[in-house]
Design goal:
single chain, 217 residues, 3-stranded antiparallel beta sheet, 5% strand, flat
Length: 217
């Protein structure tokens, strides 16, 4: 997107003061970060950032004076952070005056980065930026984050649904297995004793028939 921005845009990559540092980070493994300027290795990314500030601040280009993190509150770059999500879901914590002020600042950035009057391409980018970022500044619980792109939270809900289905199926099969094991043991033994009961009945019948024949003689 930066290729279509005007040079006065605060979000342009050439104004990003930490872009040069970010391009010289290398993650060797989870607990090892390497500085590609001098080759030193650090245990965390935070230590590497401190190293950049102390030893390699001279690599920041001239004119790059913008920290993009200062604009995260306007363009929602940290909208998936757990603390932010919890705060945003609290309807009573939302102040319409604050939200309206952030929306106006967002629209001012859109106009400065993509002036509508300078051609149809920039006008389309202006409208896209407003839909993606500025219109999300509202206290309405029905707002939609990033409607024209970027993954919202739909994929997360889909994965949660699959997990619940899997847990439900496992619970069902476990309940069936437990019910089979809880049947009385004599249930099958009764069926096996039927032939013996039938055989004993025939023996008694034969005994009485023999006794009757003896009386006749």
């Amino acid at each position: 997107m930066s290729g279509n921005m005007t040079a006065q845009c605060a979000l342009h990559k050439h104004k990003d003061m930490f872009r040069e540092h970010e391009e010289h980070k290398y993650e060797l493994r989870r607990s090892q970060w390497k500085c590609n300027y001098c080759g030193k290795i650090f245990r965390t990314e935070a230590f590497l950032d401190t190293h950049f500030e102390n030893r390699h601040s001279d690599h920041i280009p001239k004119g790059a004076e913008v920290c993009l993190a200062d604009y995260c509150d306007l363009i929602h770059c940290d909208h998936d952070h757990p603390l932010r999500v919890k705060h945003e879901h609290n309807f009573f914590a939302c102040k319409p005056t604050d939200v309206e002020g952030k929306r106006h600042l967002c629209e001012a950035i859109a106009q400065k980065c993509f002036p509508r009057e300078e051609g149809p391409d920039l006008a389309n980018m202006h409208d896209f930026f407003v839909r993606q970022f500025c219109e999300a500044h509202t206290c309405s619980p029905a707002r939609q984050m990033f409607p024209d792109g970027k993954v919202g939270r739909g994929s997360r809900w889909f994965l949660m649904l699959l997990a619940f289905l899997f847990i439900g199926m496992m619970g069902f099969y476990l309940s069936v297995a437990c019910s089979q094991q809880s049947k009385p043991r004599g249930y099958h033994d009764l069926r096996r004793t039927r032939p013996e009961a039938t055989k004993n009945f025939k023996d008694y019948f034969a005994f009485f028939s023999k006794a009757k024949k003896k009386k006749m003689y």
